[in-house]
Design brief:
The chain has 296 residues and is mainly α. It is 69% helix and 0% strand.
């Protein structure tokens, strides 16, 4: 039954030939691929709520589909708006509207705030220069956009991730973006490639990519809920899974299950790492689909 639901949820609203529509669809499919992936430690997936009480797989899919127009609008902005400041402020406004759309679709639950930021920058960067969709190039362009100040954005939002950045002096989602998404380009995508090359299943390869990010990311979602001690446990637990062969190996899977149990006990969920996995899956999809960007 879950498999049928996953197939239905992964069918986006409309796949038009227009470049912005196509890239917007890819973002939504990356988000649904991320939330469906299982078993993810502490995170919502198709089998479990993880460490959450207000989220589940169905709600996350509803949220992702509701955000498709937001990502398409950002993709159009990347094509149509060339001055960098104007572009940054335009996608900032679109992102804030998208957050309101998300909250309306989920009954006020934050499902994808971080993803709107990260994937929004990346889809804008992709359509800005569609002739160069190499992950490093798209991420670098996204970083350049993120470094431009949006004068219309609130100085402080009150979000838990923002407070964790202030409390623990970490860069968070903003720092990751402004640096050109190093945990996507230098950590998640290389691990995804290595796992595939050694013959791991696609599920195991994606889980390993997630674990590689978790092993070193200062995840503000974890810091906000559990502080530095929970972050240290998450990072060491993720490294242990990889040390024992990752999600494709029996010992690795045992360590993965133990890490999942521990994060649920701690009531922490690596949402920042999940957003970066979705970003990696989006860039991987762009690289592998070999779009003919002369059409649409």
């Amino acid at each position: 039954m879950h498999e049928n639901l996953a197939m239905n949820a992964a069918r986006p609203l409309h796949k038009a030939p227009d470049l912005a529509d196509r890239f917007g669809v890819d973002v939504v499919e990356a988000l649904i691929d991320e939330v469906t992936l299982a078993p993810k430690p502490g995170l919502v997936d198709i089998r479990s709520r993880g460490a959450h009480h207000d989220l589940d797989w169905k709600l996350m899919c509803v949220s992702a589909l509701a955000l498709q127009p937001t990502f398409v609008e950002m993709a159009h902005a990347g094509i149509e708006t060339r001055p960098m400041l104007a572009l940054r402020e335009q996608i900032g406004a679109i992102g804030r509207e998208g957050e309101a759309r998300m909250l309306d679709a989920t009954g006020g639950v934050n499902t994808h705030r971080g993803a709107i930021w990260a994937l929004g920058l990346l889809v804008t960067a992709a359509t800005r220069e569609p002739s160069d969709l190499a992950p490093e190039a798209v991420a670098a362009r996204a970083g350049s956009i993120a470094c431009v100040r949006d004068h219309h954005a609130p100085a402080l939002t009150g979000n838990k991730g923002e407070q964790a950045c202030l409390d623990y002096a970490v860069g968070g989602a903003r720092g990751q973006a402004q640096a050109g998404f190093p945990h996507v380009v230098d950590v998640a995508l290389p691990e995804l490639r290595r796992s595939r090359e050694r013959g791991d299943s696609e599920t195991a390869a994606r889980l390993n990519a997630l674990l590689a990010v978790m092993a070193s990311l200062d995840d503000t979602c974890v810091l906000a809920r559990g502080g530095p001690s929970a972050l240290a446990e998450m990072q060491s637990g993720a490294r242990l899974v990889l040390k024992h062969g990752g999600a494709a190996q029996l010992d690795g899977r045992r360590c993965l299950k133990a890490l999942d149990r521990r994060l649920v006990e701690l009531h922490v969920s690596p949402g920042g790492a999940a957003d970066l996995l979705a970003a990696a899956l989006f860039l991987d999809r762009l690289r592998n689909e070999a779009f003919d960007t002369t059409k649409g």
